[in-house]
Design a protein that fits this description.
mainly alpha; 6 helices; 3% strand; globular
């Protein structure tokens, strides 16, 4: 990936922290959440490795096809899950974007890993940028706190998506807002990585 070194290190930190939290989410008692967290951990750590500045570490040429194969396998696994549950389509797009970026890095001449040599944005890169930018906006809007209405006795009643869940009723690894925050972080990371291609 190309771009300012300080921004690259921030991206590495964001993606690695997200991957680490997703590993912790794999301790959930709900199998579906464990499976999703595992895929998200792979994405987070994969993005962190890919975002390491080329001035610090340039992977050997054979690493990119291996990278593409790993995320290709993840995309196939996610495709199978998406056939049963359409909400996995976002994970499929994410894994496919990682395959695309790996193939692009493998096909680029060695000097292009250090300086952006392109004159325009390829169509697929543009489509992925629009998708992930839209996803980031939507995921950010979903994290906005629900409205709090005051009841007659002075206590507050929460309305919105989390209205049926009392505080403390769900383990911290199973909190939907934390999972959404992870996906938002990875979406932001994906936008940043695609912009540097």
């Amino acid at each position: 990936m190309h771009g300012p070194v300080s921004a690259a290190w921030l991206l590495v930190a964001l993606c690695a922290a997200t991957g680490a939290y997703c590993l912790l989410r794999m301790r959930s008692g709900v199998e579906e959440q464990r499976r999703a967290a595992g895929g998200e951990a792979l994405m987070g750590f994969g993005m962190a490795v890919m975002a390491v500045p080329a001035a610090v570490f340039t992977p050997p040429r054979w690493a990119w096809p291996v990278y593409a194969a790993v995320f290709g396998a993840a995309a196939l696994r996610t495709l199978w899950a998406a056939l049963a549950a359409p909400h996995h389509l976002h994970h499929l797009v994410g894994a496919s974007a990682m395959v695309y970026m790996s193939v692009a890095m493998a096909a680029a001449p060695p000097e292009a890993h250090h300086a952006h040599a392109g004159t325009g944005v390829p169509l697929l890169t543009g489509v992925l940028l629009v998708y992930f930018a839209g996803y980031v906006l939507l995921a950010g809007a979903r994290l906005v706190p629900a409205a709090v209405a005051t009841t007659g006795r002075g206590s507050a009643a929460v309305t919105g998506p989390g209205a049926g869940i009392r505080a403390g009723a769900v383990g911290w690894g199973d909190r939907p807002e934390l999972a959404r925050a992870c996906r938002l972080s990875m979406g932001i990371g994906m936008v940043a990585m695609l912009m540097t291609m």
